[in-house]
Design a protein that fits this description.
The chain is an alpha+beta fold and 293 residues long. The chain has 2 domains: 8-122, Aminotransferase class 4, branched-chain amino acid transferase, N-terminal domain (D-amino Acid Aminotransferase, Chain A, domain 1, 2-Layer Sandwich), CATH 3.30.470; 133-285, D-amino Acid Aminotransferase, subunit A, domain 2 (D-amino Acid Aminotransferase, Chain A, domain 2, Alpha-Beta Barrel). The protein is built from 7 helices and 16 strands. The strands form 2 sheets. Strands 8, 9, 10, 11, 12, 13, 14, 15 and 16 form a 9-stranded mixed β-sheet that branches. Strands 1, 2, 3, 4, 5, 6 and 7 form a 7-stranded antiparallel β-sheet that branches. Strand 15 and strand 16 (263-264) form a beta hairpin.
Length: 293
């Protein structure tokens, strides 16, 4: 359960009990998937609770809302401040944060303009847990970038992720690895993908993927740690010659991948770039050794 009778949410400038709030049955987000969201984390640090890259996440939320013509009347700074208040009111310092902007009741197949802004917080562990993840190459592709704004975090896009994740679960895998329309590796159902091969890291370029904030953080850490990281297209057969791989995302953080389909990565995780980046990422979010931003 993500909330109890005392849990508070933020909704349009007010703090309300989650148990007493319901969504409108005529909201476009429910009928057509016209809503946008973010996934953000807060961490306990020696200096108190800190939201990791909250401004960047709220900037993307407002960008996504704009793409869907949903009016968000707040600045990133205001939303971050409201989130700190919400964390405090719920007594949380290690939390997942879910902002949501959805259209008010409007049944036409066009954006209505006015929107509701909600922020929810709850305690939630890593998306894939603390172990290694097994991926299956999905039969589902990422949406064609000519069919939607793939760089916007729109709720309706995640039907694609659900289908791919369900397929992977049916075949006893932890998650799916989706390809783009050109049969290049794209991303997992809810995380970006990195591959280590011949002493370098590779990750798919933007264009057919969600340009993750954690993904960019890892690329920044690569530069700081002098790890060569290339944004290039690559195929499933390239992965079957790789040394290791990992996933990145707010919910996933940095998650090691043990295999793709039947291919087991040969390099021990502790010896991979991913392990070094995983530790550097933890140092960063817990403010143990923050990198310049």
């Amino acid at each position: 359960m993500y909330y109890n009778e005392n849990t508070l949410i933020f909704r349009d400038g007010e703090f309300e009990l989650a148990a007493e709030r319901s969504a409108d049955l005529y909201a476009q987000g429910l009928h057509y998937g016209n809503a946008v969201f973010e996934g953000i984390r807060a961490y306990p640090t020696e200096a108190g609770v800190k939201i990791f890259k909250g401004i960047e996440h709220y900037e993307r939320l407002i960008y996504s809302a704009g793409r869907m013509r949903l009016k968000c009347p707040y600045t990133p700074e205001q939303l971050e401040n409201y989130t700190y208040d919400l964390l405090d009111k719920n007594g949380l310092d290690d939390a997942y944060i879910r902002p949501l902007v959805y259209a008010k009741p409007y049944m036409k197949l066009a954006s209505g303009g006015d929107a509701v802004v909600v922020i929810q917080v709850w305690s939630w562990g890593k998306l894939y847990g603390d172990g290694h993840t097994r991926l299956m190459t999905s039969s589902f592709q990422r949406p064609n970038p000519k069919s939607c704004f793939v760089d916007a975090k729109v709720t309706g896009h995640y039907v694609n992720s659900i289908l791919a994740a369900n397929e992977a679960a049916d075949h006893d895998f932890d998650d799916a690895l989706l390809l783009d329309m050109n049969e290049n590796i794209a991303e997992a159902s809810a995380a970006n993908f990195f591959m280590q091969k011949d002493g370098k890291l590779y990750t798919p370029p933007i264009g057919n993927i969600l340009p993750g904030i954690t993904r960019q953080t890892i690329m920044d850490l690569c530069e700081e740690l002098e790890i060569e990281c290339l944004e290039e297209h690559f195929k499933p057969e390239d992965i079957r010659k790789a040394d290791g791989a990992f996933l990145t995302g707010t919910a996933a953080e940095v998650t090691p991948v043990s295999c793709i389909d039947k291919y087991e990565f040969p390099m021990p995780w502790a010896e991979t770039f991913g392990a070094s980046l995983q530790e550097a990422y933890r140092d960063l979010v817990y403010h143990r050794n923050p990198m310049p931003v």
